[in-house]
Amino acid sequence: MQICDMVTIARHLNLTLVVPELDKRSFWADPSDFGDIFDVDHFINSLRDELMIVKELPLKLQLRTKKRLYSMPPVSWSNETYYLKRILPLAKKHKVIHFEKSDARLANNGLPIQLQTLRCRVNFQALRFTPQIEALGRKLISTLQRSGQFVVLHLRYEMDMLSFSGCTHGCSSKETEELTRMRYAYPWWKEKEIDSVVKRLQGLCPLTPEEITLVLEALGFTKDTLIYIASGEIYGGERRLAALRAAYPKIVKKEKILSPDELRPFQNHSTQMAALDYMVSLASDIFIPSYDGNMARVVEGHRRYMGFRKTIVLDRKKLVELLDLFQGGALAWDEFSDAVKEAHKSRMGQPTERRIIPGQPKEEDYFYANPQECLGSNGGLRDIS
What we know:
Blueprint: H1 2-13, E1 17-18, H2 34-37, H3 40-46, E2 53-54, H4 59-67, E3 70-72, H5 80-94, E4 97-99, H6 113-126, H7 131-145, E5 151-154, H8 159-165, H9 173-185, H10 196-201, H11 209-219, E6 227-230, H12 237-247, E7 251-252, H13 254-257, H14 260-263, H15 270-283, E8 286-289, H16 294-305, H17 316-327, H18 333-343
């Protein structure tokens, strides 16, 4: 999403874009570069008619930026006027401008149609995974498809998510302490004191593996459903997956389908491993994310582009309410199941208008989850050439 936005901004300002550098300071400490994940030459060549993209700065500018590189974060959720009036003069003055942050720096709504469709063109056409990732991803998909239909469950129940969100429902006191310590150990994470109970009731926590098991059963998924889990290491390991495995024995992960030798080049590279999960998520018959994080949003949008493929976007606030009522004995199973189905009738990835909330961009629907300017009535890109 950030890459697509930065291409769009560079094109709008008629600037040359340097192939993006990826963050290597996150919790996962992934050393992958852009070229380890994406096909660089395809990226550059497929956008040649829109803007110039270079792999590195010319030597003259490299020498200049060694002495002084002008670095800044653009203002979040800004429109094209901000970039023309505030950023372009800075680029002209300093010759090179480095965006030290690029997440959510371009507005979801209110942009000219040509900018919105360029974001889609970058996302759906210019960004292609490396041949190695593509080949292994295709093998994963074909193996799953030989078994019939399959569901991808994006189970965002990993240590970083739980620590930084402060969501500890279902964790032991020892685990809660560990997650809290980790959050305080990262100075760049500003939100330290978090009330897990309140956050969960607001629908702001990922569902636990035990909760998602009940939700899948309530939605009508039977015991013989083939479920591919797209995730990193689940916090609590196999112990936390016990209920899910008991209900759905046909659970698989990439580590079970592929051999250690096939996965070895991607080990310790969480972004490359996520790219494999991304490919499988796109190809699945049904995609269900347990949390609406960045990957879940962009997969949802990509599946809309591919023909509004079925994506069950869980209403976590409603589900938490129903789960507590059911587990507290206030709802019978049939009542719980009917309520869960009713709550998700219109949350299956069908065509819908993107929700706009003036003055609250963080609360509105993300462009990449529903790039409606780029979608025809049956899915697929409108003419963006």
